[in-house]
Amino acid sequence: MSSSSTPEPAPQQPQAVELSTGKPWGFWATVGFSLVILFAWLVVQVVVTVVYLFGAPSGRALFDKNPLGVDPAKISDDGTLLALATTCTGILIPPLCILFAWLKRGISTQKYLGLVRAPTRQTLGWLGAGLLFAAASDTVTWLLGRPIVPEFMDHAYRSAAFVPLLWFAVVVGAPLFEEFFFRGFALAGLRYSRLGAIGAVLLTALGWTALHTQYDLIDLSDLFLFGLLLGYARIRSGSLFVPIGMHALNNLWATVEAAIKVRYSS
User: Fold this and answer.
1) What value does the mean pLDDT of the chain take?
2) In this structure, are residues 101 and 112 in contact, taking their beta carbons and an 8 Å threshold?
3) Sign (positive/negative) of CA torsion 205, 210, 212, 217?
4) Domain assignment of residue 178, yes or no
5) 258, 147 in Cβ contact below 8 A?
6) pLDDT for 201-240, tens place per residue?
7) Looking at the domain assignment, is residue 1 inside a domain?
């Protein structure tokens, strides 16, 4: 007597791997795209500077308190030019970072750049850490007998023809460009190379510091340390919004200090 056998279930087909499981661009691709981004940043700086210096006097009068001329020796400290150039880069460069991240198949743009929210308590903790760093930095600066507000920021604030635009550029524009590029696109690619997370944080902090040629060696050392903190926050939180918030809060702190100095030393 033969017994009926239970049919075996059909083998399950392997599920498709989700797009978010891939990795960012490798080391050399990241370096190559980063050079393109930096070149785009340089082009924006040059174009804005040329338009500002050689544009029509009627247009210059809208932004420049002295449209008849700009002192070439102080052009790098010109608050109006700083506001215009930084605002433009804050608007134009992040989409370029998003584009290059989007071109990498196998990983979502959100995961690539860390465009996800971190838990509220964690975010507040990192913002608090950023404020503590700013306070510690000011304390060390005061102990060294150095001005709390760097000469560059003092002159930029005094020379800005439209101060609200300078506030927007420093507090919003600069953090958007610099964090999308350094802690967003560049750090993501370098992190999964042989450099690892530590090497990626170090290299992006160094590159970010080198971008601020307006400061002296001591101020650059302070920026480098803050860059390390921003990179560590990006790694630990998994969110780009955390270093953007920390950076914006730090720049807000510095701008308030500049405003107070200008207000009470005039």
Assistant:
1) 87
2) yes
3) positive
4) yes
5) no
6) 999 999 999 999 888 899 999 999 999 999 999 999 999 9
7) no
